[in-house]
Design goal:
This protein is α/β, with parallel strands linked by helices. It has one domain: Dihydrofolate Reductase, subunit A. It contains four helices and eight strands; from the N terminus they run E-E-H-E-H-E-E-H-E-H-E-E. The strands form two sheets. It has a six-stranded parallel β-sheet. A two-stranded antiparallel ribbon has the order 2-8. Strand 3, helix 2 and strand 4 form a beta-alpha-beta unit. The protein starts with 12 loop residues before the first strand and ends in a 33-residue tail after the last strand. It binds NADP nicotinamide-adenine-dinucleotide phosphate. NADP nicotinamide-adenine-dinucleotide phosphate binds next to strand 1, strand 2, strand 3, helix 2 and helix 4. The site of NADP nicotinamide-adenine-dinucleotide phosphate has 26 residues, from strand 1, strand 2, strand 3, helix 2 and helix 4.
Length: 186
Amino acid sequence: MKEPEPQTAAGKVLWHFSMSLDGFVAGPGHSMDWMTGFTGRDGLVEEYVATTGAILGGRDGWDAFPDAATVYGGLWHGPMFVLTHHPEDAGQADGVTFLNVDVAEALRMALEAADGKNVEVLSPTIGRQLLERGLIDEIDIHLAPVLLGDGIRLYDNPGGAPIPLTLVNGGGRVEVDLRYRPVRGG
Ligand SMILES: NC(=O)c1ccc[n+]([C@@H]2O[C@H](COP(=O)([O-])OP(=O)(O)OC[C@H]3O[C@@H](n4cnc5c(N)ncnc54)[C@H](OP(=O)(O)O)[C@@H]3O)[C@@H](O)[C@H]2O)c1
């Protein structure tokens, strides 16, 4: 397996998350306090800040963190689209559009706003809906060295069929070998 090439701004639709080893992108109650105590690759945040043109998210994620200025630690600024069945009680926020439209239409609007850069889908539920429509180009995961055991899964689809994936950074349909140890007293 090779290191992934740096992300490019190419009008792609990315389902992009830091994820625990056991597949959670948020803890119980949308908690994100598990995302500390480990490091990411140098330059990773800057890479996504530079290549992301718009963000598409869901109402629960917004309600948990209702501040567009916190995206990428405040380094990213751009149009955000938040899907909700009741935009009328969402309030107002600069640069944020609350929508009650078909998920594909929301994506179309986000791609237009992204103006050739990528759209990041920062929602497990919306990512699943777009995946079902064949509208996700890449699933970008940063695998965090932690087990959560509870929370919000990247992909929750009980009874659904497996989704085969191919590894972009070499090898195709291969397993990835990882070897972890529990941190004693951690
Ligand atoms: N680990 C990471 O890197 C990372 C990054 C970003 C976010 N997150 C986390 O991801 C979690 C996101 O939560 P989530 O996926 O459970 O919820 P979510 O997608 O943020 O919100 C779900 C809600 O979005 C609305 N929605 C979804 N699809 C819709 C559609 N087709 N039409 C209209 N409205 C629609 C509905 O809201 P209504 O009920 O209003 O209709 C639905 O209840 C948050 O905890 C956030 O912190 C993690």
